[in-house]
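ok so I'm stuck.
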Amino acid sequence: MAEDIKRISTETDKAMQKAVEAMEQDFQGYRTGRASPHLVEKIMVDYHGTDLPLQQLATISVPEAQMIMIRPFDPSTIKAIEKAIQLSELKLTPHNDGKAVYLKIPPMTQDRRKDLAKTIGKRVEEAKVELRARRHEAIEKYKKLEDKKLISEDEHKKAKQDLENTIHKYSAKADDLGARKEKEILEM
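replied:
not stuck anymore, here's the structure
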């Protein structure tokens, strides 16, 4: 059934595209010495036993080029927000005035740039793991179709080859995005 192969291929392509887009969106949070809400909005905060992204618990603004201000909707969450920031990979020390949390973004040192480059490399690898997981799922689906005699062995092989081409395309895109972000960070 060619339509089953096409459906699986389309679903897998979309899932792989989403994995790369999520990585690219995460890269927006990796800024080079300038404050940006993207730096903190995805940090997970323990809110009464439930982990929520910071952007759901507070308004995040940039009052100065080197400062992020986080104003929680519920002031009782300030300590949880500070703790989440301290545990994050940002390596920033939060301060609060009882109403808001402030993060001063220091100028980027060469060591910090190298740390960020390593973080970017880890994020690219996470995206590739996600791509491989999607490939594995698709291969399993193709195998089930072949086992049920809904597709031939040749159709299965062709679908797997097309799948390999798809994963190579998205892996190359992830590598390219990672390399460009690393270059941007290391050159500043």
